[in-house]
Amino acid sequence: MRSIWKGSIAFGLVNVPVKVYTATEDHDIRFHQVHGADGGRIKYNRVCQECGKTIQFADIDKAYSSEDGTQVILTDEDFDELPAAEKHEIPVLQFVPSEQIDPILFEKSYYLEPDSASPKAYQLLASTLTESDRTALVHFTLRQRTRLAALRVRDGVLVIQTLLWPDEVRAAEFETLDKTAAPSDKELAMAKSLVESMSEDFEPESYTDEYQIQLQKMLDEAIKNGGKKVTPPEAVAAAKEDAEVVDLVAALQRSVDAAKSGKTDTAEKSPKSAPAKKTAKRSPARKTG
Questions:
Q1: Residue 177 zone, left/alpha/beta (φ > 0; ψ -120 to 50; rest)
Q2: Which of 12, 158, 161, 244 has its CA at a distance of 20 to 30 angstroms from the CA of residue 235?
Q3: Closest to 159 in 3D by CA, of 283, 39, 7, 21
Q4: Cα separation of 213 and 27, whole Å?
Q5: 82: alpha, beta or left, given left = phi > 0 and alpha = psi -120 to 50?
Q6: What is the per-residue pLDDT across 44-78, written as a single tens digit (0 to 9) for each?
Q7: The whole model's pTM is what?
Q8: Could you tell me where the DSSP H helices lie in the chain?
Q9: Which residues are within 8 A (CB) of 254 and not within 5 positions of it... i.e. 6 or more apart?
Q10: Beta-carbon count within 10 A of 137 CB
Q11: What is the pLDDT of residues 144-161, one digit of tens each?
């Protein structure tokens, strides 16, 4: 991995020098656009609507249009003058109970590596967070953008997870939920029974991205045939069910029986079988207009 940022965590009067690395990666297969008739690559030019010329990236600035139609153009120098662009520090704002952070706020994850000859301060912070079961709320500035972030520990390594600002989370207001009757005691008991029968420890490695696997299989087959023919993967027959379940209790009972039967069959075949794979300087801003 390659470090994308260097700085330090400001933990009271203690500074913890760190390097930042992207913690996740995208394994999706990448495509480019072509002309379907002859396979020619499609290219997009940055053409100015005023002069009709193709513009280089170095000559492109950012513009904001207000509701009344006034356009303000900001240059790179404008953005460099913002306080956020000068910060190479991750200040700890406060420590909160980990369970109080709603997962919907989590955005992107980054690993932090100690960047000093003696990582004692790093280990102290990591151990303190672990033993106190607390998460540190921090400000994290990356690519001229400051985010609120959660600083926590994962397998002994400090991890920063950027958070959405509260006003970036939409309110879920659905009238149909307000009009729906609460489940009966019998339905709730049966649903809990189903949950119990399907409960297992979470093992993320047992899940696979079947879409990407089948897509790669299709591409490999096409390459094998010289790119002239694509053999589609076998269609997976999906179980058909009624669009609306009238008798919830009966449906739940059948689900419980099926779940128990599936576990029994697996146990009979192999007592220690592996888990099945699952799918699932500021220059003035210019005004125009």
A1: alpha
A2: 244
A3: 21
A4: 11
A5: beta
A6: 889 999 999 999 988 999 999 998 989 999 888 88
A7: 0.69
A8: 76-80, 120-132, 175-179, 185-197, 210-224, 248-269
A9: none
A10: 17
A11: 788 899 999 999 999 999
Q: Which tokens sit at 164?
A: 């959405």
Farthest-apart Cα atoms in the chain, separation: 76
Q: Retrieve residue 73's tokens.
A: 């153009």
DSSP3 helix / strand / coil % (the chain, rounded to 5): 30, 25, 40
| Cα–Cα distance for residue pair 268/106, rounded to 1 Å | 41
Query: 């109080």: which residue's tokens?
Result: 100
Measuring CA to CA, how many Å separate 268 from each of 83, 201, 228, 260?
A: 65, 20, 46, 12
Query: Cα angle vertex 256, ends 253, 260, to 5°?
Result: 140
* pLDDT confidence band for 84 (50 / 70 / 90): low
Identify the three-state secondary structure at position 208.
strand
Query: Is the alpha carbon torsion for 8, 10, 13, 18 positive or negative?
Result: negative
